[in-house]
Amino acid sequence: MLELPALGWQSIVIFVVFAVSLLIATYCTYAERVIAAFLQDRVGPDRAGPYGLLQPLADAVKMFTKEEFFPGGANKALFVFGPCLAMITALMSSAVIPFGNNMSFGNNAFFLQGIEVNIGMLWVFGVVSLGVYGVMIGGWASNNKFSLLGAIRAASQNISYELAMGMSLIAVLMISGTLSLREITLQQSVAGEWQFWNIAKQPLGFIIFLVCAFAETNRTPFDLPECETELVGGYHTEYSSMKLGLYLFSEYVNIFVVSAVMSVLYFGGFNFPFQYELRDWLVSNHDWTLAGAQNLITLLGTVGLFLKIFAFIFFFMWIRWTLPRFRYDQLMRLGWTILIPLAVFNIVLTGGLILFGVI
Amino acid sequence: MSPIFLFLTFVALLSALGVVFAKNPVHSVLFLILTFFSLSGHYLLLNAQFVAAVNIIVYAGAIMVLFLFVIMFLNLNVDTEPHKPALAKIAAAIAGGTLLLILTAAMKDIEPLGMAAGATFNSQIGMVDQLGMKLYTEYLLPFELASVLFLVAMVGAVMLGKREVGERNF
């Protein structure tokens, strides 16, 4: 039988993961504007609170108090269902991400991870592939041509880039031999020997994954589904109030999750350099207990993982305010005729390197 | 029977009926996605995590997106739907009923593997490594042939999408 996640400590972890995802997504909206202002040499939001830090709160108040608008002829149930689905699928995938190693207090040991399943990577991939439904259903239910075009673009874009993304994941799977994200993280750092993060073994795979991540989260330069110069607002043209807020919000949750996945798969997850040396040094020179030192390492590792995630989120925003949008045929050509052959080549290359014992 | 099993079965049957009876084709597709989810829940109850995840990725995540994609293009209104003559409806009912009868008769005496007295059920059989071991030892040839077929299909899709000489898309 399948074991349900144990209640108690683990449920607190799940709740914290949920809260942290939402908090980070909230402040992504602020960070996006601050970074945009910095890159464009403007001031940016600075009115609400010190340094404009209360800006997300002000936005939330604005979103909630705006008029709920239903376009004529819209499918009402699906019109409401679309943004809900976008938010649900965005939040679901953070469940399997290992945000830290295990901690123990006396006899209570728990993992800083929602649920540990041995199909973690497939779970993330599956939930990401469901993410497009929110956009499609919302765009279709709006009964608007621009919305429908946005929905259709989103569907074909996600299907196309999922292929290359899946194949770049297969290469990671080949060198790790497991689908569990926790196992993949632990393999990237082994006590007492030189072990490189997966980025050193999979540079090409990482680049493919990164490009696909931009396309899957509908971020510039691949934000064709909401391309405002052609489609007004794309799939969320007709949305107002908090329903629009949920769409915008789910995009930031997606960025957070995909940044976390990239950090875990390619950048060592919660590992940081010389962690085992630090632990042994604390135990031998400062009379720490092994469990206490391990707890400290786990906390530092979690901080390290979040630093990696923030670096990726910054990268996403940096790209957004740097590169112009692709044209639709360019997007499709990049996906099908460049990324997919590259991903197949990467699999063959990885297989060859494993066969000859290089990695 | 566990309450989770009963709940999943209830959802699966209800949403499967929804697929057939929904007037709006988009609703039908959404009900079908819900059916796939409850089937994945059943796979999880059988401890077949890999099959559950792949079912979601392939059916719910890819094939149904394409279904929805096509249906959104079509303008399927109730009044444009052609009405079949009564004879065709009766013939369809008889043919479908016969198929149901034959399937029920054929499956009536089946004894599921592992349910026989004294048989042991390997709870790890649905895990990824066990499945991979089976596929790469006992079923190597069919598995490899299938993967070659998929690769050919993918290369074919890329070839079809390639720009022809003199063609401009913009």
Characterization of the model:
Chain A: It catalyses: a quinone + NADH + 5 H(+)(in) = a quinol + NAD(+) + 4 H(+)(out). The complex is a heterodimer of chains A (359) and B (170). Chain A has 359 residues and is mostly helical. Chain A has 14 helices and 2 strands, in the order αααββααααααααααα. In chain A, strand 1 and strand 2 form a beta hairpin. In chain A, helix 9 (203-216) packs antiparallel against helix 14 (328-355). Chain A is globular. The model of chain A has no long low-confidence stretch (mean pLDDT 84). With 170 residues, chain B is mainly α. Chain B has helices spanning 3-21, 25-45, 49-73, 86-107, 128-137, 140-161. The radius of gyration of chain B is 22 Å and the shape is extended. The termini of chain B are far apart.
- Using a beta-carbon cutoff below 8 angstroms, give the protein chain pair with the largest interface and the number of residues from each chain: A-B, 37 and 35 residues
Let me know the average pLDDT of chain B: 82
Which descriptor suits the 3D outline of chain A? globular
CATH class of the domain at 3-77 and 87-124 in chain B: Mainly Alpha
Question: Helical segment tally of chain B?
Answer: 6
Please mark out the parts of chain B with pLDDT under 50 across 5 or more consecutive residues, or reply none.
none
Number of strands of chain A: 2
Inertia-based shape of chain B = extended
Unreliable spans of chain A: none
Mean pLDDT of chain A: 84
Rounded radius of gyration of chain B (Å):
22 Å
Which class do the helix and strand fractions of chain B yield? mainly alpha
Order of helices and strands of chain A: HHHEEHHHHHHHHHHH
The largest β sheet of chain A comes out as: 2 strands, antiparallel
CATH T-level fold name of the domain at 3-77 and 87-124 in chain B: Four Helix Bundle (Hemerythrin (Met), subunit A)
Oligomeric category: heterodimer
| Estimated share of beta-strand residues of chain A | under 5%
Cross-sheet strand order for the largest sheet of chain A: 1-2
